[in-house]
Structure formats: structure tokens, C-alpha cells
Design brief:
Helices cover 12% and strands 30% of the residues. It is of the alpha+beta class and 328 residues long. The radius of gyration is 21 Å and the shape is elongated.
Length: 328
């Protein structure tokens, strides 16, 4: 009798979740976010290394990785933040296809560079889709919750795409921990005309520290005080009292949401609507940077046009393919 195609959670790590692309689309108007991996660049490379379609369900690990016991033989790959992975206590390389046998234990430790790691298994994680996706929205329990000790997760059947064992050279990986990873592009809007000209300039010429009170919903930043345009201080009462208040409206994913004097970047599990202005928006091509920045690190923003933001996403999507892998 063949062993079950699954793995068991020995230690869950810090809010480790199943994620999948493109996420849970089509329910934004009901307040259900897309979820999915924040650093989708690393996520996709992990899947390609084990022969999966690049958007297959895999694990996202934050800060402290899990310990997992494998009940079947499987190919695994770990990408993203450096979490010193071991198999039965022996170090294994990241960004590389690894053969794991039934009964072995995979363990990840605390992240040394970056914030989030991704673990892909050949065949992918075969949990039951909810509203069309296996991506977990942990805070609402949609698609499941973060891993728990003793939990088992099923694996799917590997497809026919696995053509060998591979490695991702540094040139094809996201440059975690680099100056580039902390320089984040943004586009103006949708509410940039609610800030003063001085604050619009200050935002892209200042340092912004990531607060520890950040998660997959939003990243809180500390930095200079904002000042506001005339329309924010002389507005109709339905817009609220604080200059950053506005009549409830939809929030774009990646919005830099100004709650009083605290900017919050709304990422994968963010709310879809609210009553604060959003002077800038981070394009999706920059999300891998948001997924890997650690609390107390410094971000700098720079403006790009909408056309450039869209081109960056097209370039990234076309770069993360089988061509990024090198045979071992």
C-alpha cells in the first residue's frame, strides 16, 4: 500500500499559510481580498523548481519557518528569505530542487535575510478550494487558517512537467536585502490632490521605517508629518473631521492609505473599502519588495508613471519562467 501523499505539521512556524495564484478573485466587492503570496516572484520560482505550473498552491512562511514530516517521497524547493532549511538535520540548499523521502523531516529556522520563504512540493498542495482558490485569508478563516501542530495537508499528483533537478542562479532571483529591494516605486493617486504640494514632495524624498505592527493586511510606516491641501481642510461634513478622512470609497490593492498621520500600505489581505485617503499606490510589480522587508527597516519611494508600472509587471511576469532555471 502506498503511503498517503501528504505532510504533517510538527511545528507550524509563525503564521505559515497555504497560498496560491492568482488568489481569490471576483469577491473584492464583498470585502474578500485576493490573498495569495506577497512575494509572488519567489513563490513562482519555487513551483517551477519542482515541475509545477508556477501558480500552484505552496506554503508561505513568515519570519520563523515550520517543521514538517513528509509522509511520501516528493520534490521540494525553498525560495525567498534565507531560513537555513534542513532535511533530517542536514543543511539543504535554497533555490534548488531537492529530493525528499517519505519519513524525512524538513525544518526551517528564523529568517536571516528577507521576511518570507516559500516551500513548494511536486504536485502542489491539494487542499479544497474555497471561493475558487486555495489561498488562505487567515484573519477571516477563508480557505483555512495558518498551520497548526499535528495538521496534515494533502499533496496533489505531480504532472508531467518535471524535467530534472534545477537551481536558480542569483541573477534570476529577487535581490533580497539589497538597496534595490528597499526602493519602492509608486504611482500618484487616487487621492493625491488631498495632500499639499510639500507633502507630495516629502513623501518621495524621505525615509519611511516599517513598523512592527504590520502583517498581510497592511504595512504601517513611520516618517514625516503630512500636511494637506485646501480641499482636505475645507470639505463637506460627510467626509469626516480629520483631513485624511474622506467619504467611504474603494481601496486599490497596493494603496498607501493615510490613517490620520500613519501611512499603511494595503497588501494581499487588505480591506477593500474605507474612509481614508490614498495619495499613492504601489504597483503589483513591487509587491515582492513589500513581502520581504522586515520591521524597522527603511523604505524609500520613487514615482513612476502608470505606463511604467504596467510595463514592470509585464517584464516580471515574462522573466519568471522555466528559462530562469539552470540544470544541476
Amino acid at each position: 500500500m502506498n503511503p498517503p501523499s501528504q505532510f504533517e505539521v510538527v511545528k507550524p512556524g509563525l503564521e505559515t499559510t497555504v497560498q496560491e495564484l492568482p488568489g481569490r478573485l471576483g469577491h473584492w466587492e464583498q470585502g474578500i481580498p485576493p490573498s495569495g503570496p506577497v512575494d509572488f516572484w519567489s513563490f513562482r520560482l519555487a513551483n517551477l523548481l519542482v515541475g509545477n505550473p508556477r501558480d500552484t498552491a505552496a506554503l508561505e512562511c513568515q519570519v520563523m519557518g515550520p517543521t514538517l514530516r513528509l509522509h511520501c517521497s516528493v520534490l521540494i524547493a525553498i525560495t525567498g528569505a534565507e531560513m537555513s532549511p534542513t532535511l533530517d538535520g542536514q543543511p539543504i540548499p535554497m533555490w534548488t530542487t531537492v529530493i525528499a523521502r517519505a519519513g524525512q523531516t524538513l525544518a526551517l529556522r528564523g529568517s536571516r535575510v528577507g521576511m518570507r520563504s516559500y516551500i513548494a512540493f511536486s504536485g502542489g498542495i491539494a487542499t479544497t478550494p474555497v471561493l475558487g482558490s486555495r489561498a488562505v485569508f487567515h484573519m477571516a478563516g477563508i480557505g483555512g487558517r495558518a498551520l497548526q501542530p499535528g495538521q496534515t495537508l494533502p499533496l496533489g499528483v505531480p504532472g508531467g512537467d518535471q524535467r530534472g533537478l534545477y537551481h536558480v542562479d542569483e541573477a534570476h532571483r529577487p535581490p533580497l536585502g539589497s538597496d534595490e529591494s528597499r526602493s519602492v516605486a509608486c504611482v500618484r493617486g487616487p487621492n493625491d490632490d488631498w495632500l499639499s504640494d510639500e507633502s507630495l514632495t516629502d513623501f518621495v524624498s524621505s525615509d519611511w521605517k516599517v513598523q512592527a505592527q504590520s502583517n498581510r493586511t497592511g504595512m504601517r510606516l513611520s516618517g514625516p508629518v503630512f500636511s494637506f491641501a485646501h480641499r482636505a481642510t475645507h470639505k463637506r461634513p460627510e467626509h469626516g473631521q480629520d483631513p485624511s478622512n474622506i467619504l467611504d470609497h474603494g481601496y486599490p490593492l497596493g494603496a498607501i492609505n493615510l490613517a490620520g498621520q500613519t501611512p499603511i500600505i494595503l497588501i494581499n489581505d487588505a480591506p477593500s473599502t474605507g474612509g481614508f485617503i490614498n495619495p499613492f499606490t504601489v504597483p503589483s510589480a513591487e509587491f515582492w519588495k513589500l513581502g520581504q522587508v522586515r520591521p524597522h527597516e527603511i523604505l524609500r519611494f520613487h514615482e513612476v508613471s502608470l505606463d511604467e508600472a504596467q510595463q514592470r509587471r509585464r517584464d516580471l511576469d515574462s522573466a519568471v519562467t522555466q528559462e530562469a532555471l539552470t540544470p544541476q
